[in-house]
């Protein structure tokens, strides 16, 4: 079950580069996007490194630690574990809320599929959502898209 936090119902919308999105001179929010704040929180956690957020020093994933590692089952398992830890250390998500699947897509790239599998509180997310991530073991990425 997702942590019952008010900030998960609405948030400022960020670009893929972490900048605030503006429209007509005003900030764009996640209002009107089902689960937008939850999905953005997941993306922020996966793209960040612990220590990046001063007020939440444990928030983030250790994805950059995998740069230069071999594209094999052991690395895939470690990436899966790092993502699960980043999403659940503070009970933001728990085990039955999501699934993480990791598989090679090329010599140096790994595809990560994160499925939000349960209706995570009707005010946040009413249906299954998929987030797709490509991580390049050569040190580029992660590149995140919504499914």
Question: How would you briefly describe this protein structure?
Answer:
The chain is α+β, with helices and mostly antiparallel strands. It has two helices and six strands. The radius of gyration is 15 Å and the shape is globular.
What does the model show?
The chain has helices at residues 36-47, 73-88, and strands at 22-23, 26-27, 98-104, 109-116, 129-136, 143-146. The longest helix has 16 residues, at 73-88. With 147 residues, the protein is of the alpha+beta class. It has one domain: Roll (Nuclear Transport Factor 2, Chain: A), CATH 3.10.450.40. The strands form 2 sheets. A 4-stranded antiparallel β-sheet has the order 3-4-5-6, covered by helices on one side. The mean pLDDT is 77. A hairpin with a 2-residue loop joins β1 (22-23) and β2 (26-27).
Summarize the topology.
Blueprint: E1 22-23, E2 26-27, H1 36-47, H2 73-88, E3 98-104, E4 109-116, E5 129-136, E6 143-146
Antiparallel strand pairs: 1-2, 3-4, 4-5, 5-6
The counted number of beta strands is: 6
The arrangement of helices and strands along the chain is EEHHEEEE
CATH topology: Nuclear Transport Factor 2, Chain: A
Q: State the end-to-end CA separation.
A: 21 Å
Helix-strand makeup class: alpha+beta
How are the strands of the largest sheet arranged? Answer: 3-4-5-6
Q: Which runs of at least 5 residues are low in confidence (pLDDT < 50)?
A: none
Roughly what is the average pLDDT, rounded to an integer?
Answer: 77
User: What form results from the Cα inertia axes?
Assistant: globular
> How many H/I helical runs?
2
Strand percent estimate: 15-25%
Helix content: 10-25%
């Amino acid at each position: 079950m997702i942590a019952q936090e008010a900030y998960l119902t609405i948030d400022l919308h960020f670009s893929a580069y972490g900048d605030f999105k503006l429209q007509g001179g005003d900030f764009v929010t996640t209002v009107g996007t089902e689960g937008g704040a939850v999905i953005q929180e997941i993306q922020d956690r996966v793209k960040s490194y612990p220590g990046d957020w001063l007020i939440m020093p444990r928030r983030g994933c250790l994805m950059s630690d995998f740069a230069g590692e071999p594209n094999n089952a052991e690395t895939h398992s470690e990436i899966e574990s790092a993502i699960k830890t980043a999403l659940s250390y503070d009970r933001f998500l728990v085990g039955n809320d999501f699934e993480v699947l990791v598989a090679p897509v090329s010599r140096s790239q790994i595809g990560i599929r994160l499925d939000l599998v349960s209706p995570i509180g009707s005010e946040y997310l009413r249906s299954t959502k998929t987030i797709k991530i490509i991580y390049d073991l050569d040190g580029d990425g992660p590149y995140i898209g919504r499914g």
